[in-house]
Amino acid sequence: MTTQEIPVTAFSDQRPGTAGLRKKVALMQQPHYLANFVQSIFDCAPELRGNTLIIGGDGRYWNRDAITTCVQMAAANGISRVLIGQGGLLSTPAASNLIRQRGAAGGLVLTASHNPAGPDGDFGIKYNIAGGGQAPEALTERIFETSKALTRYRIDPDVQVDLDRVGTSQQGTLAIEVIDSVDDYAAQMATLFDFERIRAWLRQGHRVRFDALHAVTGPYARRILVEQLGAAESDIVNAEPLEDFGGGHPDPNLIYAADLVAAMNGPDAADLGAASDGDGDRNMILGPGVFVSPGDSLAMLADNLHLCPGYADGVVGIARSMPTCRAADHVARRRGIAIHETPTGWKFFCNLLDAGHITVCGEESFGTGSTHVREKDGLWAVLAWANILAASGRSLPEIATAHWQRCGRHYFQRHDYEGLPAETADGIVEDLRARLPTLVGQTLGGLGVTAADDFAYTDPIDGSRATGQGLRVVMGDAARIVLRKSGTGTDGATLRLYLEHWRQDALDLDPAAALAPLAAVADTLIDLRQRTGRAKPDVVT
Ligand code: G16
Description:
This protein is of the alpha/beta class and 541 residues long. It is built from 17 helices and 28 strands. Helix content is 34%, strand content 25%. β15 (317-321), α11 and β16 (338-342) form a beta-alpha-beta unit.
């Protein structure tokens, strides 16, 4: 074993975004680029020395090479043990679970989430701390500062790993353990949900259709849904993880999971339809003929989670990111529990989860999760819904309708304008920010503006403050318009416009039609189409 110190000219563009560093593959593959970032992590996380590090990824193009680099650098940086998912595969929630279950000091998750893969696609890497959560902002900033000033990195090129063979080998001072990617995760799910009840429900002829979009959740869904619960193999589609995700866009939404949507709107619809994303932390939930928006799914899960054995004591509190619709707020009020509003980014939930202030949390970006890990968890949401359907004896449309009748319906859409020049996006945000103080008291589209601000958040546990987290124009409980810049794109800047309109009088509208008046108000207010030169948003979810 020979540790080498490789001199490096530091890179200036390695600031992590909403969830880690995401870049085009070609950029990531530049000599020393990945190593520069990984060494910066190791320099900022001295607790890794002499400890265990979890490593895995979503299986996208370059995953295996990148993992080998990480292992060689772990050996040269005094880490004593690495646990790697077989084939280099670990879903993001499975990695978070392993960090917690195996008492690891941290984890490297190689993923660019739902971003397309392949030589022309994206690659990404994020660091999760002990406890399983994403590195908090103060740490990612330190990593960024380190990455800009790095002069050398350490690597042991003699260390080799056979990613396909489960087992342990010792190379120098480093123990390398390749483990089954699914075992620990599946075991945890069995402690949270009533597998026997779900099995019985499926035996009665109910069906779960799951689309893995050729990303990491295929093996997890096959093991849990098919082998352990008895779902039909033919209902688990696109279950083979592929390096390019089959050329698709593994983002579980109405646009990119169109086949699933069509199946769930067809005559042979399953009782529950779901899809997950590249690294398995997102989920989309559908019933026969019904799409459950992520904000609604959070609210309905929170209201029914006590039907699952792992949550039999009930939900102590709920959190949602600021742009997420306020359906969960109604559930919290009705149940007399706390609701927390955090900035976009799962890391903002972690302190609340650690402190026991919340049981469940979620985001409009198709993420839902709970205290069981410190990441959002796609399959967890699918199993929670399956358990709730099986235990309640109600269908998904019945649960959705009952929720809307009790709480009203929060019509919600997100309009994305992608790949914009940074100065265009920044200019649009700046202009609206400057006008915010003048908006309060005005009537827009018949609705009075009650608040207009740039969202800031003070973490109730550690007092840390996050500012500039999105512009919001609030019309009381009735409606909101939110504008923010995405922190996960790799191609120019993406602006997200979020529209929410709460209706108690009309529960069965097409969301696009229900939101059309508010979209017109936003258009007048922000002039997005004119200023971006786009006739319409690139993606509407
Ligand atoms: C990441 C974060 C989420 C966030 C999402 C969208 O998800 O973990 O918390 O909501 O990005 O962020 P943005 O609106 O800034 O693009 P993922 O699934 O991409 O890791």
